[in-house]
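Sequence in, structure out. Go.
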Amino acid sequence: DILILPLTRDGQTVSVEMIDYQGRKSALARAPRTRAYWTPEPIPQDAHVIAIGEGMATVLSVHHATGWPVVATFGNSNLEPVSQQFRASHPTATLVLLADLQKDTREPDPHARKAADTVKGILATPDLNSESGKDWNDYAATNGPEATTAALTAILDTRRPTETLRQNHCL
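Output:
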């Protein structure tokens, strides 16, 4: 059994990400991946919040918990170019960069931090110890969807200006 996810760039399918039942991942050789992404459903043009993360499981866990539109980039080096696309196409949306924790330092992935800075987004880092995992999927698996919603909402509320929340009808 293999899950096949289409990767999109500029409205065109440019590659696929394949994930087998053991979690092994593979992509088409020599297929373009820079700026390519996957979404489980179309992102509404009037989206107030869009969460962008590396992996399918991470973004689906966040979507399940929050209901936010989500984007998977399938690689940390792709976070910034994909985030720039969504900033251009959704200039008023709050972009939430779902940072993985680095194994050695437990700090947010620097690619996620750079992407958040570049697009004036919000860096969301899960509060996990080394035994609990490294990403928002691990956080959701450990703490459940309600706690995941609460943690992400708290990050959003503390890092977004109140005026922006009012303008986007989130308050």
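Check: Confidence is low (pLDDT under 50) at residues 161-171. The chain has six helices and seven strands.
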